[in-house]
Structures are given as C-alpha cells and as structure tokens.
Design a protein that fits this description.
Its EC number is 2.4.2.19. The chain contains 11 helices and 12 strands. The chain has 282 residues and is of the alpha/beta class. The protein is elongated and about 75 Å long.
C-alpha cells in the first residue's frame, strides 16, 4: 500500500537527488516574490496515477504551493485534458516540476499499460497481476499504479508469501516426484497455517506431486496454450492456477481463455513507457 509516509520518503529523496544544493537557476533567475500558475496537461491519452505523489512533489518543495483540480486515480483521459492545476511561488513550482512529472508520467504509463492488459482479458475470470520486477526503491509506487490501472498486486516482497521456484527445488534436492512431494510437505508443516505456498512448475508431470503436498497455488511457467488448458484441468480448482512467462498484449487473451485464475505480467512495471504529460504556464 502506498502510504503517506512512503510517498513523503520517496518524494523527498527524489527532490534531494534533483536539487542537492538548491535550484541555482530558479534562485538566481526568478524573483523571490514571483508567482506562477500552471496546468498539468496530457499530450496523449491514458490512465492517470500518482495524484498524491504529484501533490507531494510540489508541497514538499514549498508548502505555499496549491495543487487543485487533481484527477482521480485511474481516471481515463484524452490528449489535451487538464489533470491538475498548480500555482504558487514560482521558484517552488519550477523546482518541483521535474520530480512531479517524472513520477506522474511513469506511474500513469504503468496504469495505462495495465488497463490495456485488463481490457484484453475482459469476459474471462483471469486477473492481471504484477510481479517483483520493479524499479528498486519504487516498488510501492509502481504496484500502486498497477492497481490504478485495474490490475491486482502479487506478493509485495519476499516476506509476504512462500514462492518455490525451480532453483529452490534444486537447492532442496527435489529431483523427482517423490523428493518434490516430501520437500514441499515438510515446508507446509513448518510454515504458518495462514502462509500461502505457491510452487512454480514448468512441466505437466510436476503438477500432481505439488498438489499432493497441499500447496495453495501452482504457477504454470512458460506453458504452451494447450498445456495451460491441460494444467488447469489437472489442478481442478484445488489451488489457485497462475500463468506466467511469454505474456504480451497479443497473447494474454488466449492465455486467459485457458481458464487460469491469475496471469502475472512482469512488463507491467519493467516494460511500461512513461506517458507524455506536460506542465504548461497559464
């Protein structure tokens, strides 16, 4: 969850990064008593995300800056739409501008891409989820943007749930059905009863031993469409069935129609481009 504390911490760090010893241009070129009124204007259509982050970028720069008419999270906009109005001391507005734009352009880009994936699976039961493939230090911001675009959040980090992948199984010495089943049953006994256990498989024959160990989710990694459909049939509702790997806007609809419950898409965060938003003086 993107809390006020996380917003302030992240935005303050970005402001310090951008102006570690102050904004020499604004301080030398702009009179101290100058005021400036601006609008955040969309140069292209999309979904908006980062309203409170934008507000913080300006008010943490100068608390006298007023941010109003802010678009709602997830708001669908067209080119030319005004998404916010910002006015106040000119030095502060100009100093906070780039940080505000960097955040809102990035987060709106993620929300827009997520919305496209969500639209592509409409009419199915599949949910679009993000992954841990996020920008270091910005995970809460980027996962918030996924939700603004209509997506779901996968585990936030390694502390949230148990996810056993191929390298984990290799480290456990799980080389066949029997050793895999035994290792996962031991894990199930040692984990708390409220802890989710998701296991990644890359072959159909791995599904039954995993389910017999009592896991809560099975991740079908890089399966063909036919194998995904067969995997869903074998899982048979005994665990959450997730698909990942090779997911694009061209393939996600067909993947959803195999009957999987969740489709995790790393490119929602690591592959989204920043939207073109600008701050125009009025």
């Amino acid at each position: 969850m993107l809390t006020p504390h996380l917003i302030e911490t992240g935005v303050r760090a970005a402001l310090v990064e951008d102006a570690p010893w102050g904004d020499v241009t604004a301080e030398l070129a702009i009179p101290a008593d100058a005021v400036l009124s601006t609008r955040l204007v969309a140069r292209e259509g999309g979904k908006f995300a980062g309203r409170e982050v934008l507000r913080a970028a300006f008010t943490l720069t100068d608390p006298r800056i007023e941010v109003s008419a802010l678009a709602a999270e997830g708001f669908a906009f067209d080119a030319g739409d005004v998404l916010a109005e910002i006015s106040g001391p000119a030095r502060g507005v100009l100093t906070g501008e780039r940080v505000a734009l960097n955040f809102t352009q990035r987060l709106s880009g993620i929300a827009t891409l997520t919305a496209a994936y969500v639209a592509a699976v409409e009419g199915t039961a599949a949910r679009i989820a993000d992954t841990r493939k996020t920008t270091p230090g910005l995970r809460a911001f980027e996962k918030h943007a996924v939700r603004a675009g209509g997506g779901s959040s996968h585990r936030f980090g390694l502390s949230d749930a148990i996810m056993v992948k191929d390298n984990h199984l290799a480290a456990l010495g799980a080389v066949d059905a029997a050793t895999t089943r035994a290792a996962l049953r031991d894990l199930r006994e040692r984990a708390g009863h409220t802890t989710a256990i998701i296991v990644e498989v890359d072959r159909l024959d791995q599904i039954d031993p995993v389910l017999e160990a009592g896991v809560t989710g099975v991740l079908l990694d890089n399966f063909s469409l036919d194998d995904l459909a067969e995997g869903v049939r074998r899982v048979g509702g005994r665990a959450v069935c997730e698909a990942s790997g090779g997911v694009s806007l061209d393939t996600v609809g067909a993947i959803a129609r195999t009957g999987v419950d969740v489709i995790s898409v790393g490119r929602l965060t690591h592959g989204a481009r920043a939207l073109d938003l600008g701050l125009d003086a009025v």
